[in-house]
Design a protein that fits this description.
mainly alpha
Length: 440
């Protein structure tokens, strides 16, 4: 197994967990399956022979190319790559679902987008399907419906349905025939939909896959000449990088988003990007930098006018900023400030966001020594979040569970554990509480 991992690393890939690889090897050894092209190539590398010598299929470059987390060179490349990603995702291609994000890809994407000379045009080719603005509007309406489901039920609820729609209905549009104006509108709309697929995959903790969706979305936004949307995609990458503990990269991505849209920035976009920078800086312990970024976010949001903002950023309001500030103050161990902000972070209209904010409030109470308040708030979160299918929600709850155990055995904690022991999300923490990483 060590040789397989070394072979994968040389090709720029990371294999799934040891247990997953062991199960795959056992399946080969028992004759239940044979290595596919991806693993055939790695086994050939490990034994220093051609895969054919081992009687295995060789990856002709397709799988390796699919797993590469590079920034596309052209709109044609983005269209081809995202189409293949959707298909592989639907087929539950394990190396892709288990792929790790690439740190260099974050830096490459932000730099290449910042210095890009301008949007590129798609290579001319006759498409049998003529695409118009009505087709673009249909994609937009459908993606908005899926976004509402994601917000209400979590990324794992309808993620597969989103990918099915993109693969079956949207991919043919991208391969169709359209004017430059329609193409720009199509790219922007598909970039939004692919950004949603990235968020849902991130929420399901398919992190390498999510990053790859974000990268394709960024390229499509570039070729749509939509700087604001591209900046928002970089902000999503920053959010994911913070969650994964890559704080320096996260701060850089947020700053690149701010820099890249400076000419077309709106107050709400600036506020959201400053908030992402603050989240990353809080995790590094840079209290002064974090507070400065939060102050900039607050001032920007105070000057916003919803009528002048892209409709997809209007969700970011005072409650959302309060939630981001609550995360920040929790992470710099200012429990009382975290409580104060978290109490103002409940929108009542975004179930998953409210769950996150409520769990931050519960954790802040716990860090302040208010165990009873912490348990009551966590119980409330479990009640209204019962229908969420979100691995990120489970990670927040798992961290709280670990912190509650560290607070010591007491009657309040025991009563809480008994009260919530059959809640689905609490049950899901059973296998994670022992090795929970900090929820971000």
């Amino acid at each position: 197994m060590r040789e397989l991992r070394q072979a994968a690393a040389k090709r720029g890939h990371q294999l799934p967990s040891d247990n997953s690889v062991k199960r795959r090897i056992a399946s080969w050894e028992n004759g239940h399956s044979t290595p596919d092209g991806f693993y055939g190539t790695l086994l050939g590398d490990a034994f220093q022979v051609a895969p054919a010598v081992l009687g295995l299929a060789q990856d002709a470059g397709g799988d390796a190319e699919l797993l590469d987390a590079g920034y596309p060179d052209s709109p044609d490349a983005a269209i081809s790559t995202v189409d293949r990603l959707w298909a592989a995702d639907l087929n539950q291609y394990e190396p892709l679902l288990q792929a790790e994000p690439s740190e260099p890809a974050w830096n490459e994407a932000s730099l290449r987008w910042l210095v890009a000379p301008g949007p590129s045009t798609r290579s001319g080719r006759a498409g049998v399907l003529r695409v118009g603005l009505g087709d673009v509007a249909a994609v937009k309406t459908t993606a908005d419906m899926f976004a509402q489901l994601d917000d209400r039920f979590g990324g794992d609820h309808a993620r597969r349905s989103v990918i099915q729609y993109l693969s079956a209905d949207v991919a043919p549009l991208l391969r169709g025939s359209y004017s430059d104006a329609v193409g720009r509108a199509l790219y922007a709309t598909v970039a939004e939909a692919t950004l949603l697929a990235g968020w849902m995959s991130y929420d399901a903790c398919h992190h390498g896959l999510a990053q790859r969706y974000f990268l394709q979305a960024l390229r499509l936004a570039q070729d749509a000449n939509d700087r604001r949307l591209a900046g928002s995609i970089l902000s999503a990458m920053s959010h994911q990088a913070t969650f994964l503990g890559r704080y320096t990269e996260a701060a850089t991505l947020a700053r690149a988003a701010l820099m890249g849209i400076s000419a077309v920035a709106t107050p709400t976009l600036r506020a959201q990007f400053h908030a992402m920078e603050a989240r990353a800086l809080a995790r590094t312990g840079d209290v002064r930098g974090c507070e400065a970024a939060l102050t900039a976010a607050t001032r920007a949001l105070e000057s916003s006018n919803a009528e002048d903002e892209p409709e997809w950023i209007t969700y970011f309001d005072a409650a959302e900023l309060a939630a981001e500030a609550a995360h920040c103050f929790r992470d710099v161990n200012s429990a009382r400030q975290a409580v104060a902000h978290a109490e103002n972070a409940m929108s009542g209209s975004h179930v998953r966001s409210d769950f996150f904010a409520t769990m931050v409030l519960a954790d802040a109470h716990l860090r302040a020594g208010d165990i009873e308040d912490a348990c009551q708030v966590a119980a409330d979160a479990l009640d209204f979040g019962e229908n969420l299918k979100s691995a990120r929600c489970v990670s927040y709850l798992a961290e709280f569970r670990v912190n509650l155990l560290e607070a010591g055995d007491n009657a309040i904690s025991r009563a809480f554990a008994e009260q919530v022991r059959e809640h689905r999300l609490w049950v899901a923490t059973e296998s994670r509480a022992g090795n929970a990483s900090p929820a971000r």
